[in-house]
Protein backbone atom coordinates (compact mmCIF):
# COMPACT_ATOMS: atom_id res chain seq x y z
CA UNK A 1 0.00 0.00 0.00
CA UNK A 2 1.45 3.33 -1.07
CA UNK A 3 1.80 5.75 1.81
CA UNK A 4 0.22 9.20 1.46
CA UNK A 5 2.23 12.37 1.75
CA UNK A 6 2.34 14.11 5.10
CA UNK A 7 -0.09 17.09 5.28
CA UNK A 8 2.74 19.59 5.58
CA UNK A 9 4.58 18.19 2.56
CA UNK A 10 1.35 18.02 0.55
CA UNK A 11 0.74 21.70 1.33
CA UNK A 12 4.30 22.60 0.42
CA UNK A 13 4.15 20.84 -2.96
CA UNK A 14 0.78 22.40 -3.81
CA UNK A 15 2.21 25.93 -3.67
CA UNK A 16 4.01 27.20 -6.76
CA UNK A 17 7.70 28.02 -6.75
CA UNK A 18 6.95 31.67 -7.49
CA UNK A 19 4.61 31.87 -4.50
CA UNK A 20 7.24 30.41 -2.18
CA UNK A 21 9.78 32.99 -3.25
CA UNK A 22 7.29 35.85 -2.92
CA UNK A 23 6.37 34.69 0.57
CA UNK A 24 10.04 34.38 1.53
CA UNK A 25 10.73 37.89 0.22
CA UNK A 26 7.87 39.37 2.24
CA UNK A 27 8.97 37.62 5.44
CA UNK A 28 12.64 38.52 5.03
CA UNK A 29 12.10 42.20 4.14
CA UNK A 30 9.62 42.41 7.04
CA UNK A 31 12.30 41.16 9.43
CA UNK A 32 14.93 43.45 7.93
CA UNK A 33 13.00 46.67 8.35
CA UNK A 34 11.68 45.58 11.73
CA UNK A 35 15.30 45.43 12.85
CA UNK A 36 16.00 48.89 11.39
CA UNK A 37 13.21 50.46 13.46
CA UNK A 38 14.02 48.30 16.47
CA UNK A 39 17.49 49.88 16.56
CA UNK A 40 16.11 53.45 16.23
CA UNK A 41 13.75 53.28 19.20
CA UNK A 42 16.10 53.01 22.23
CA UNK A 43 17.04 56.71 22.27
CA UNK A 44 13.45 57.70 23.02
CA UNK A 45 13.27 55.24 25.92
CA UNK A 46 16.63 56.17 27.42
CA UNK A 47 15.97 59.94 27.44
CA UNK A 48 13.98 59.78 30.66
CA UNK A 49 16.85 57.84 32.28
CA UNK A 50 19.59 60.22 31.16
CA UNK A 51 17.75 63.10 32.84
CA UNK A 52 15.31 62.39 35.66
CA UNK A 53 14.15 63.74 38.99
CA UNK A 54 17.01 62.76 41.28
CA UNK A 55 15.28 64.08 44.42
CA UNK A 56 12.99 61.02 44.35
CA UNK A 57 15.90 58.56 44.22
CA UNK A 58 17.84 57.30 47.25
CA UNK A 59 21.43 58.50 46.97
CA UNK A 60 24.21 56.02 47.86
CA UNK A 61 25.83 56.90 51.19
CA UNK A 62 29.36 56.83 49.73
CA UNK A 63 28.51 59.25 46.93
CA UNK A 64 29.82 62.75 47.61
CA UNK A 65 28.01 65.24 45.37
CA UNK A 66 27.22 68.90 45.85
CA UNK A 67 24.17 69.16 43.59
CA UNK A 68 21.46 66.82 44.81
CA UNK A 69 19.10 67.76 41.98
CA UNK A 70 21.20 66.25 39.19
CA UNK A 71 23.50 63.69 40.82
CA UNK A 72 21.77 60.73 39.12
CA UNK A 73 21.71 62.25 35.61
CA UNK A 74 24.14 61.36 32.84
CA UNK A 75 26.29 64.32 31.83
CA UNK A 76 26.04 66.28 29.58
CA UNK A 77 22.26 65.78 29.87
CA UNK A 78 22.22 66.94 33.49
CA UNK A 79 21.85 70.60 32.52
CA UNK A 80 18.67 72.72 32.35
CA UNK A 81 18.80 72.65 28.54
CA UNK A 82 18.61 68.84 28.43
CA UNK A 83 15.51 68.89 26.20
CA UNK A 84 17.36 70.94 23.61
CA UNK A 85 20.31 68.52 23.78
CA UNK A 86 17.98 65.57 23.26
CA UNK A 87 16.47 67.39 20.30
CA UNK A 88 19.97 67.92 18.92
CA UNK A 89 20.75 64.19 19.12
CA UNK A 90 17.49 63.34 17.36
CA UNK A 91 18.24 65.93 14.71
CA UNK A 92 21.76 64.63 14.09
CA UNK A 93 20.31 61.25 13.17
CA UNK A 94 17.34 62.55 11.21
CA UNK A 95 19.11 65.27 9.21
CA UNK A 96 21.81 62.77 8.20
CA UNK A 97 19.05 60.30 7.32
CA UNK A 98 17.14 62.88 5.24
CA UNK A 99 20.22 64.05 3.32
CA UNK A 100 21.55 60.56 2.78
CA UNK A 101 18.19 59.26 1.57
CA UNK A 102 18.27 61.35 -1.60
CA UNK A 103 21.50 59.58 -2.61
CA UNK A 104 20.66 56.17 -1.20
CA UNK A 105 17.94 55.48 -3.76
CA UNK A 106 20.32 56.05 -6.65
CA UNK A 107 22.88 53.71 -5.08
CA UNK A 108 20.14 51.14 -4.51
CA UNK A 109 19.31 51.10 -8.23
CA UNK A 110 22.90 50.57 -9.26
CA UNK A 111 24.08 48.07 -6.61
CA UNK A 112 22.84 44.57 -5.72
CA UNK A 113 20.08 45.05 -3.15
CA UNK A 114 21.17 42.05 -1.09
CA UNK A 115 24.70 43.36 -0.58
CA UNK A 116 23.51 46.94 -0.11
CA UNK A 117 21.13 45.91 2.68
CA UNK A 118 23.69 43.62 4.31
CA UNK A 119 26.32 46.35 4.58
CA UNK A 120 23.72 48.85 5.80
CA UNK A 121 22.49 46.59 8.59
CA UNK A 122 25.99 45.68 9.75
CA UNK A 123 26.96 49.36 9.94
CA UNK A 124 23.69 50.25 11.71
CA UNK A 125 24.38 47.53 14.26
CA UNK A 126 27.91 48.83 14.81
CA UNK A 127 26.90 52.45 15.44
CA UNK A 128 23.92 51.48 17.62
CA UNK A 129 26.24 49.40 19.81
CA UNK A 130 28.80 52.23 19.97
CA UNK A 131 26.16 54.56 21.43
CA UNK A 132 25.44 52.02 24.18
CA UNK A 133 29.13 51.44 24.83
CA UNK A 134 29.32 55.08 25.92
CA UNK A 135 27.71 53.87 29.16
CA UNK A 136 30.42 51.28 29.85
CA UNK A 137 33.26 53.50 28.65
CA UNK A 138 31.89 56.34 30.83
CA UNK A 139 31.77 58.81 27.93
CA UNK A 140 30.12 62.17 28.67
CA UNK A 141 30.97 64.00 25.45
CA UNK A 142 28.03 65.39 23.47
CA UNK A 143 30.25 65.34 20.37
CA UNK A 144 30.71 61.56 20.67
CA UNK A 145 26.97 60.82 20.85
CA UNK A 146 26.15 63.35 18.12
CA UNK A 147 28.77 61.80 15.78
CA UNK A 148 27.39 58.31 16.39
CA UNK A 149 23.88 59.55 15.58
CA UNK A 150 25.05 61.13 12.30
CA UNK A 151 26.81 57.96 11.18
CA UNK A 152 23.88 55.78 12.18
CA UNK A 153 21.50 58.04 10.28
CA UNK A 154 23.57 57.65 7.11
CA UNK A 155 23.84 53.88 7.55
CA UNK A 156 20.09 53.50 8.00
CA UNK A 157 19.30 55.17 4.66
CA UNK A 158 20.18 51.85 3.04
CA UNK A 159 17.03 50.23 4.37
CA UNK A 160 13.85 51.74 3.04
CA UNK A 161 14.57 52.25 -0.69
CA UNK A 162 16.08 48.77 -0.91
CA UNK A 163 13.27 46.83 0.81
CA UNK A 164 10.52 48.68 -1.11
CA UNK A 165 12.34 48.09 -4.41
CA UNK A 166 12.74 44.42 -3.54
CA UNK A 167 9.06 43.96 -2.68
CA UNK A 168 8.04 46.00 -5.72
CA UNK A 169 10.13 43.68 -7.93
CA UNK A 170 8.18 40.65 -6.69
CA UNK A 171 4.62 42.02 -6.50
CA UNK A 172 2.38 43.66 -9.08
CA UNK A 173 -0.17 46.41 -8.49
CA UNK A 174 -3.12 44.13 -7.72
CA UNK A 175 -3.97 44.37 -4.00
CA UNK A 176 -0.67 46.19 -3.49
CA UNK A 177 -2.21 48.50 -0.89
CA UNK A 178 -3.41 45.63 1.32
CA UNK A 179 -0.23 43.58 0.90
CA UNK A 180 1.99 46.52 1.70
CA UNK A 181 -0.33 47.75 4.45
CA UNK A 182 0.12 44.44 6.27
CA UNK A 183 3.83 44.28 5.38
CA UNK A 184 4.42 47.87 6.55
CA UNK A 185 3.45 46.90 10.08
CA UNK A 186 7.17 46.12 10.41
CA UNK A 187 7.64 49.80 11.32
CA UNK A 188 5.31 49.57 14.30
CA UNK A 189 6.45 46.06 15.25
CA UNK A 190 10.04 47.32 15.28
CA UNK A 191 9.08 50.30 17.43
CA UNK A 192 7.23 48.05 19.87
CA UNK A 193 10.05 45.51 20.15
CA UNK A 194 12.63 48.29 20.41
CA UNK A 195 10.66 49.88 23.25
CA UNK A 196 10.27 46.61 25.14
CA UNK A 197 13.92 45.58 24.72
CA UNK A 198 15.25 49.02 25.66
CA UNK A 199 12.80 49.23 28.56
CA UNK A 200 14.04 45.93 29.97
CA UNK A 201 17.54 47.39 30.53
CA UNK A 202 16.97 51.13 30.84
CA UNK A 203 16.83 51.34 34.64
CA UNK A 204 19.73 48.97 35.34
CA UNK A 205 22.26 49.47 32.53
CA UNK A 206 21.00 51.74 29.75
CA UNK A 207 23.94 50.82 27.53
CA UNK A 208 22.35 47.42 26.90
CA UNK A 209 19.26 49.23 25.61
CA UNK A 210 21.40 50.02 22.54
CA UNK A 211 23.79 47.07 22.43
CA UNK A 212 21.10 44.38 22.26
CA UNK A 213 19.14 46.03 19.39
CA UNK A 214 22.47 46.71 17.64
CA UNK A 215 23.39 43.03 17.83
CA UNK A 216 19.95 42.07 16.50
CA UNK A 217 20.14 44.25 13.37
CA UNK A 218 23.70 43.06 12.68
CA UNK A 219 22.56 39.42 12.92
CA UNK A 220 19.65 40.19 10.60
CA UNK A 221 22.14 41.64 8.12
CA UNK A 222 23.90 38.26 7.98
CA UNK A 223 20.52 36.62 7.36
CA UNK A 224 19.99 39.01 4.45
CA UNK A 225 23.33 38.06 2.92
CA UNK A 226 22.46 34.36 3.11
CA UNK A 227 18.84 34.34 1.90
CA UNK A 228 17.55 37.43 0.06
CA UNK A 229 16.76 37.24 -3.67
CA UNK A 230 16.64 40.70 -5.26
CA UNK A 231 14.56 40.00 -8.37
CA UNK A 232 12.41 37.12 -9.68
CA UNK A 233 14.61 36.79 -12.77
CA UNK A 234 17.59 35.87 -10.56
CA UNK A 235 15.97 32.50 -9.74
CA UNK A 236 14.06 31.95 -12.96
CA UNK A 237 10.68 33.19 -11.69
CA UNK A 238 8.24 35.34 -13.66
CA UNK A 239 8.35 39.06 -12.90
CA UNK A 240 4.95 40.75 -12.31
CA UNK A 241 6.42 43.88 -13.90
CA UNK A 242 6.64 42.06 -17.25
CA UNK A 243 2.90 42.57 -17.65
CA UNK A 244 3.29 46.33 -17.74
CA UNK A 245 5.94 45.98 -20.43
CA UNK A 246 3.64 43.78 -22.49
CA UNK A 247 0.87 46.36 -22.16
CA UNK A 248 3.23 49.05 -23.46
CA UNK A 249 4.07 46.89 -26.50
CA UNK A 250 0.39 46.19 -27.19
CA UNK A 251 -0.27 49.93 -27.08
CA UNK A 252 2.14 50.36 -29.97
CA UNK A 253 5.32 51.50 -28.21
CA UNK A 254 8.44 49.64 -27.25
CA UNK A 255 9.42 49.66 -23.59
CA UNK A 256 12.52 51.62 -22.77
CA UNK A 257 15.70 49.88 -21.72
CA UNK A 258 15.55 49.01 -18.04
CA UNK A 259 18.17 51.47 -16.90
CA UNK A 260 18.30 53.62 -13.77
CA UNK A 261 16.50 56.94 -14.18
CA UNK A 262 17.78 60.34 -13.12
CA UNK A 263 16.68 62.37 -10.10
CA UNK A 264 15.02 65.11 -12.19
CA UNK A 265 13.09 62.63 -14.31
CA UNK A 266 11.77 60.91 -11.18
CA UNK A 267 10.54 64.29 -9.89
CA UNK A 268 8.48 64.76 -13.07
CA UNK A 269 6.42 61.63 -12.44
CA UNK A 270 2.85 62.89 -11.72
CA UNK A 271 2.11 62.89 -8.00
CA UNK A 272 5.69 62.51 -6.72
CA UNK A 273 6.02 66.11 -5.50
CA UNK A 274 2.58 66.24 -3.84
CA UNK A 275 3.01 62.99 -1.96
CA UNK A 276 6.62 63.86 -1.04
CA UNK A 277 5.68 67.13 0.66
CA UNK A 278 2.58 65.62 2.24
CA UNK A 279 4.83 62.95 3.74
CA UNK A 280 7.14 65.68 5.06
CA UNK A 281 4.40 66.89 7.42
CA UNK A 282 3.00 63.42 8.10
CA UNK A 283 6.42 62.15 9.21
CA UNK A 284 6.94 65.31 11.26
CA UNK A 285 3.96 64.23 13.37
CA UNK A 286 4.83 60.53 13.43
CA UNK A 287 8.50 60.96 14.37
CA UNK A 288 7.71 63.52 17.07
CA UNK A 289 5.63 60.80 18.70
CA UNK A 290 8.37 58.23 18.03
CA UNK A 291 11.07 60.25 19.81
CA UNK A 292 9.12 62.23 22.43
CA UNK A 293 6.03 60.23 23.42
CA UNK A 294 7.74 58.26 26.23
CA UNK A 295 9.11 61.48 27.76
CA UNK A 296 5.70 63.17 27.39
CA UNK A 297 3.97 60.27 29.16
CA UNK A 298 6.65 60.26 31.86
CA UNK A 299 6.24 64.00 32.50
CA UNK A 300 2.45 64.22 32.26
CA UNK A 301 1.36 60.88 33.70
CA UNK A 302 4.38 60.62 36.08
CA UNK A 303 5.33 57.11 34.94
CA UNK A 304 8.82 55.71 35.42
CA UNK A 305 10.95 55.24 32.25
CA UNK A 306 9.97 51.58 31.72
CA UNK A 307 6.24 52.20 32.24
CA UNK A 308 6.32 55.21 29.92
CA UNK A 309 8.14 53.21 27.24
CA UNK A 310 5.73 50.27 27.49
CA UNK A 311 2.70 52.58 27.32
CA UNK A 312 4.05 54.37 24.27
CA UNK A 313 3.92 51.10 22.29
CA UNK A 314 0.11 51.47 22.13
CA UNK A 315 0.63 54.26 19.58
CA UNK A 316 2.43 51.76 17.36
CA UNK A 317 -0.22 49.09 17.91
CA UNK A 318 -2.73 51.57 16.52
CA UNK A 319 -0.30 52.29 13.68
CA UNK A 320 -0.40 48.63 12.60
CA UNK A 321 -4.19 48.73 12.33
CA UNK A 322 -4.14 52.11 10.58
CA UNK A 323 -1.67 50.95 7.93
CA UNK A 324 -3.71 47.84 7.12
CA UNK A 325 -7.00 49.77 6.98
CA UNK A 326 -5.48 52.46 4.76
CA UNK A 327 -4.14 49.85 2.35
CA UNK A 328 -7.43 47.92 2.24
CA UNK A 329 -9.58 51.03 1.66
CA UNK A 330 -7.24 52.44 -0.99
CA UNK A 331 -7.27 49.12 -2.87
CA UNK A 332 -11.07 48.99 -2.78
CA UNK A 333 -11.62 52.60 -3.83
CA UNK A 334 -8.54 53.08 -6.01
CA UNK A 335 -8.11 56.47 -4.30
CA UNK A 336 -4.77 56.58 -2.51
CA UNK A 337 -4.74 60.36 -2.00
CA UNK A 338 -8.34 60.55 -0.76
CA UNK A 339 -7.73 57.75 1.74
CA UNK A 340 -4.74 59.63 3.18
CA UNK A 341 -6.68 62.90 3.21
CA UNK A 342 -9.63 61.52 5.19
CA UNK A 343 -7.36 59.99 7.83
CA UNK A 344 -5.32 63.18 8.16
CA UNK A 345 -8.50 65.26 8.57
CA UNK A 346 -9.64 62.95 11.38
CA UNK A 347 -6.19 62.99 13.04
CA UNK A 348 -6.14 66.75 13.78
CA UNK A 349 -9.02 66.85 16.32
CA UNK A 350 -7.90 63.52 17.79
CA UNK A 351 -4.45 64.95 18.59
CA UNK A 352 -6.11 67.89 20.35
CA UNK A 353 -8.36 65.58 22.39
CA UNK A 354 -5.49 63.29 23.38
CA UNK A 355 -3.52 66.19 24.82
CA UNK A 356 -6.63 67.58 26.56
CA UNK A 357 -8.22 64.48 28.10
CA UNK A 358 -5.89 61.62 27.23
CA UNK A 359 -4.52 61.26 30.77
CA UNK A 360 -7.86 61.30 32.62
CA UNK A 361 -7.90 57.52 33.02
CA UNK A 362 -5.93 54.50 31.86
CA UNK A 363 -8.75 53.33 29.60
CA UNK A 364 -9.09 56.71 27.87
CA UNK A 365 -5.32 56.93 27.45
CA UNK A 366 -5.10 53.48 25.86
CA UNK A 367 -8.01 54.09 23.48
CA UNK A 368 -6.86 57.53 22.36
CA UNK A 369 -3.22 56.50 21.93
CA UNK A 370 -4.26 53.64 19.64
CA UNK A 371 -6.66 55.84 17.68
CA UNK A 372 -4.04 58.58 17.24
CA UNK A 373 -1.53 55.96 16.12
CA UNK A 374 -3.94 54.60 13.50
CA UNK A 375 -4.83 58.02 12.08
CA UNK A 376 -1.28 59.39 12.09
CA UNK A 377 0.57 56.30 10.82
CA UNK A 378 -2.08 55.11 8.34
CA UNK A 379 -1.35 57.82 5.70
CA UNK A 380 2.38 57.65 6.46
CA UNK A 381 2.40 53.89 5.87
CA UNK A 382 0.34 54.12 2.67
CA UNK A 383 2.51 56.83 1.09
CA UNK A 384 5.83 55.16 1.88
CA UNK A 385 4.71 51.76 0.56
CA UNK A 386 1.88 51.37 -1.98
CA UNK A 387 2.01 54.96 -3.26
CA UNK A 388 5.80 54.86 -3.67
CA UNK A 389 5.60 51.51 -5.46
CA UNK A 390 2.79 52.76 -7.73
CA UNK A 391 4.72 55.88 -8.70
CA UNK A 392 7.93 53.92 -9.16
CA UNK A 393 6.19 51.80 -11.81
CA UNK A 394 4.11 54.65 -13.25
CA UNK A 395 2.86 54.32 -16.84
CA UNK A 396 4.88 57.40 -17.81
CA UNK A 397 8.04 55.31 -17.33
CA UNK A 398 7.00 53.12 -20.29
CA UNK A 399 7.85 49.80 -18.68
CA UNK A 400 11.07 50.83 -16.94
CA UNK A 401 10.98 49.05 -13.58
CA UNK A 402 14.22 50.50 -12.17
CA UNK A 403 12.73 53.75 -10.88
CA UNK A 404 11.38 52.14 -7.70
CA UNK A 405 14.41 52.81 -5.54
CA UNK A 406 14.88 56.43 -6.70
CA UNK A 407 11.19 57.36 -6.38
CA UNK A 408 10.99 55.72 -2.95
CA UNK A 409 14.12 57.59 -1.84
CA UNK A 410 12.76 60.95 -3.07
CA UNK A 411 9.43 60.51 -1.28
CA UNK A 412 10.90 59.13 1.93
CA UNK A 413 13.87 61.52 1.83
CA UNK A 414 11.53 64.53 1.63
CA UNK A 415 9.45 63.01 4.40
CA UNK A 416 12.59 62.56 6.46
CA UNK A 417 13.13 66.33 6.41
CA UNK A 418 9.88 66.54 8.38
CA UNK A 419 11.03 63.67 10.58
CA UNK A 420 14.10 65.75 11.44
CA UNK A 421 12.15 68.96 12.02
CA UNK A 422 9.51 67.43 14.29
CA UNK A 423 11.71 66.18 17.15
CA UNK A 424 13.92 69.29 16.87
CA UNK A 425 10.93 71.62 17.15
CA UNK A 426 9.54 69.53 20.01
CA UNK A 427 12.82 69.95 21.88
CA UNK A 428 12.74 73.72 21.38
CA UNK A 429 9.01 74.16 22.09
CA UNK A 430 8.45 71.69 24.95
CA UNK A 431 10.04 73.89 27.67
CA UNK A 432 7.20 76.38 27.03
CA UNK A 433 4.60 73.66 27.58
CA UNK A 434 3.39 70.45 25.93
CA UNK A 435 0.26 72.21 24.66
CA UNK A 436 2.42 74.17 22.21
CA UNK A 437 3.99 70.96 20.93
CA UNK A 438 0.55 69.58 20.10
CA UNK A 439 -0.47 72.82 18.38
CA UNK A 440 2.61 72.40 16.20
CA UNK A 441 1.62 68.81 15.38
CA UNK A 442 -1.95 69.80 14.49
CA UNK A 443 -0.67 72.56 12.19
CA UNK A 444 1.58 70.06 10.40
CA UNK A 445 -1.35 67.68 9.99
CA UNK A 446 -3.50 70.40 8.39
CA UNK A 447 -0.68 71.34 5.99
CA UNK A 448 -0.38 67.68 4.94
CA UNK A 449 -4.09 67.70 4.06
CA UNK A 450 -3.78 70.87 1.99
CA UNK A 451 -0.88 69.48 -0.04
CA UNK A 452 -3.02 66.54 -1.16
CA UNK A 453 -6.01 68.70 -2.16
CA UNK A 454 -5.26 68.74 -5.92
CA UNK A 455 -4.78 64.97 -6.10
CA UNK A 456 -7.92 64.36 -4.04
CA UNK A 457 -9.90 66.64 -6.38
CA UNK A 458 -8.64 64.66 -9.40
CA UNK A 459 -9.57 61.36 -7.76
CA UNK A 460 -13.07 62.62 -6.92
CA UNK A 461 -13.47 63.85 -10.50
CA UNK A 462 -12.36 60.47 -11.83
CA UNK A 463 -14.71 58.64 -9.47
CA UNK A 464 -17.67 60.84 -10.50
CA UNK A 465 -16.83 60.29 -14.16
CA UNK A 466 -16.78 56.51 -13.72
CA UNK A 467 -20.07 56.64 -11.82
CA UNK A 468 -21.67 58.75 -14.56
CA UNK A 469 -20.52 56.37 -17.29
CA UNK A 470 -21.83 53.41 -15.32
CA UNK A 471 -25.26 55.01 -15.01
CA UNK A 472 -25.31 55.82 -18.72
CA UNK A 473 -24.42 52.23 -19.52
CA UNK A 474 -27.18 50.91 -17.25
CA UNK A 475 -29.73 53.15 -19.00
CA UNK A 476 -28.89 51.70 -22.43
**Element order, helices and strands?**
HHHHHHHHHHHHHHHHHHH
List the domain count as a whole number: 1
Radius of gyration, in Å, reads 24 Å
Q: In the CATH hierarchy, what is the superfamily?
A: MFS general substrate transporter like domains
User: What is the name of the CATH architecture?
Assistant: Up-down Bundle
Low-confidence stretches: 244-256
Summed over residues and divided by their number, the pLDDT gives a mean of 82
Strand fraction: under 5%
Helices and strands: which structural class? mainly alpha
Principal-axis shape equals: globular
- CATH fold assignment: Growth Hormone, Chain: A
What top-tier CATH class fits best?
A: Mainly Alpha
Helix content: over 70%
Task: Characterize the biggest β-sheet.
Answer: none
Beginning-to-end CA distance, first to last residue: 63 Å
Helical stretch count?
19
Q: Tell me the total number of β-strands.
A: 0
Report on the architecture of this protein.
- α2 runs antiparallel to α10 and α5 packs antiparallel against α10.
- The chain is built from 19 helices and no strands.
- It is mostly helical and 476 residues long.
- The protein is globular.
- It has one domain: MFS general substrate transporter like domains (Growth Hormone, Chain: A, Up-down Bundle), CATH 1.20.1250.20.
Descriptive labels:
476 residues; mainly alpha; Growth Hormone, Chain: A; 19 helices
Q: How is this fold's topology laid out?
A:
Layout: H1 7-14, H2 17-40, H3 42-50, H4 82-110, H5 113-136, H6 142-156, H7 159-170, H8 176-183, H9 185-201, H10 208-227, H11 242-250, H12 263-267, H13 272-301, H14 305-333, H15 336-357, H16 362-392, H17 404-429, H18 434-451, H19 453-475
